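Repro case for the chain-ordering regression, as requested:
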Amino acid sequence: MELTIEFREKAFENKPQSTENLQEIANEIRRDIIQSLVLAKSGHSGGPLGSADIFASLYFGGYMRYKKNEPWWEGRDRFVLSAGHMAPVLYATLANAGMFPKEELRTLRQFGTRLQGHPGRDMGLPGIETSSGSLGQGISIAVGMAMADKLLDNTDKRVYSLTGDGELQEGSVWEAAMSAYHFKLDNFCWIIDNNDCQIDGRIPEVMDVYPIVEKCQAFGFDTIVCDGHNFDEINAAFDKFLANQKNKTGKPTAIVAKTYMGRGVSFMEDNFKWHGNPPNVEQAITALQELVL
Amino acid sequence: MQEFSLLGKKPTRHGFGEGLVVLGERNPNVVALGGDITGSVMTSYFKEKFPDRFFSIGIAEQNATTIAVGMALSGKVPFFASYGAFCAFRNADQIRISMCYNEANVKIGGGHAGISVGPDGATHQVLEEVAFLRTLPHMTLVVPCDFLEAKKATIAIGEMVGPAYIRFGRVDVPMFTTEETPFQLGKAEVFHPGNDVAIIACGSMVWPALEAAKELSKIGVSARVINNHTIKPFDYETTVKAAQECGAIVTAEEHQVHGGLGSIVAEAVAKNYPVPMEFVGVKDSFGGSGDPTELMEKFGLTWKEIYASALMAMKRRDKGAVALRKVNEVESYSQA
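-- result from build under test --
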């Protein structure tokens, strides 16, 4: 069987919507991740597939405020991908949000592309707020953004940042967490993609960062645990963040999303060996067959 | 050309602190981040004047740098200052990726630079950061020579767009520049005329360079003293012109001789107009506790060292550089 690559232009909306719609969007994001990775012949499959549901909810459930035709709109909320290696899911999400033509997903990791292996702000890709890739930095940049938005500009703009769970081994993550609490950043939402995997193996075997929830609580976050593949739970977590901001709780929000690496592709699921590899052609064909709704 | 004389003594860190206040008055987007030693690196001036625009980050240089990046990406002009020993290396990754690769409009003030920190000892005497910072794309790096130049340089980096680092020191150092002394980022200035030898210096070594030139003139040697305050972008033209017109160069810096001003000058000269060079600086060694003056003597950071090096550079030019250093006599600081 031949591999057919098709980046389908969609007109998904960003508003509170049904689980079925969000599932369809997440599925489209997963297909685009597989397609761009098989063409790139390198890159990370596991994390991007595992977090696709979170991205679908965040960008298409009405939580991130953005304008697809005006990507640098002053009033936008900002998202910082601290786990820069998960770029394929961010690119696929932004393309499906209409920030740039989906055909551009073909260029992932290739010479001259705006879709760098890890996000590069110098490329000017709409929706990429900062370069990231050296772990433990993006979350701190996001805290700086939230401080500027809330403490200096007195706006109600929100800042979201996603880290991996292996990333929690970087001490600078906790420096950022400490300051989000210290500066009472209720406009800041930290999403932890808790798939329990990193390149070398299971989190507790490489370096045990658990208990994550208790750590976040101890650092002063309103900490919500959710099934990162259940839209009711993901949406409820984001709703809680919005409520925290609205009620001026003065507490930052942490969402610990329990996910499976490689979600949606049977042979990749919950297997840390898929952290840093792309599918080959046969694997991509199988994966795309599985990702038909 | 202006003739310089001693006008008093003051630390360059005070120039940084005062410059930051001027910036705060001129631009409401200027903010400052403290790393628990605000009274030492003089961000305390800004903190008193603009408490709403000052943020204490605590002892967390990595976080302070990346928070500054986040603020810069929100249109602010954040200054973060600490000891150079900590705010150039602990956060090196943050400086490289988040600050420079992002071209974020973040400014770092690296205080307590050099051996003259004194009693605190080697851990706090940063002597290597110029070597690192000058290799970073998009970075602007400035090492002012006295109080007033530190103030001018601080204002200058606050009014340009892009990542920048300013290096300054702890102790009282001679004040000799005035409001009239020209200062422009990226432009080295000739502070003393001469054509027999060029002394290219930065920071605290500019004054000793002027002293050396004065002593050299007593034996009939006219030394050109260049204040090369901006390490990056580097003023190649002034250095190469000095090589062409003087034929011998001494560099002087309160930094390791490896990778700093001397290395940049050597790169510029080797590529464009090779001449014998001598390097005054710390020679592959850590510092130690002591009185700043004792330490400057011990590590050869004096006008006398510059004077002797100038004569050596001239001798090598006049007798042929090869003749003076045979292959088996090649100088190597690390083996010394």
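Ordering looks correct now. Residues 248 and 275 of chain B are 6 Å apart (CA to CA).
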